[in-house]
Write a structure and sequence with these properties.
alpha+beta, Cathepsin B, Chain A, seven-stranded antiparallel β-sheet, two-stranded antiparallel sheet, 9 helices
Amino acid sequence: MGIATVHRLAAAALALCLLSTGAPAKTLPLPDGLVGLNSEAGETLLLHSTARQAYWNLTLQFVTQKTQTYCGIASIVMVLNAVGAPAPTSPELEPYRIFTQDNFFNDETEKVLPQAVLARQGTTLDQIGLLVQSYGVRAEVHHAGDTTLDEFRRLARDHLAQPDRHVIVNYLRKSIGQERGGHISPLAAYNADADEFLILDVARYKYPPVWVKAAALFDAMNTTDSDNENRTRGFVLIDAGR
């Protein structure tokens, strides 16, 4: 085993420790077909992932969604912090700057998604793209109905293999056996041997980060969202280019 491999394994082990620090939350049981990151099988999938560069910065910014409609905002905040986008100030954090689920909102985000609407129905796929763009970060929205599984796999894999690029997915939970409606979270890694993606689920009180088959995730994205003119859900490709 080479030194570089040893270092990668050590770093992975450290990151896993960071995720598992403290007593585990009482989350819902995972359905068949999903593998929790906080399991031996989940750890093995990460250690042997072929595309996991996005994982490192994302885990440092991992947050729990503030309310049950804030999954999109929590996901955006994680990604903006991970790519190092200039963050707004917060009186309670001065002189330090970081995106939070409170200071994220401003006049530009209000034009895209008023907080009153967010509190009622959450965030749509297209709003995710526009909200990220409002901070000068590139975001490319892909509706599952307009693409294919192979194209999704290729684009997501290529993004996850680079530290300054990220993927946010919008999917229907019940399609992968979870409870229950539409949800948004970032992807963090891809394991080619298993053909599985790692979702860093921002509803950390509900489910741990999980590995899901690429085909199952794509099917869960290829579902219609009544809050988005019945367009299909999908994924947003994000990079640090400004």
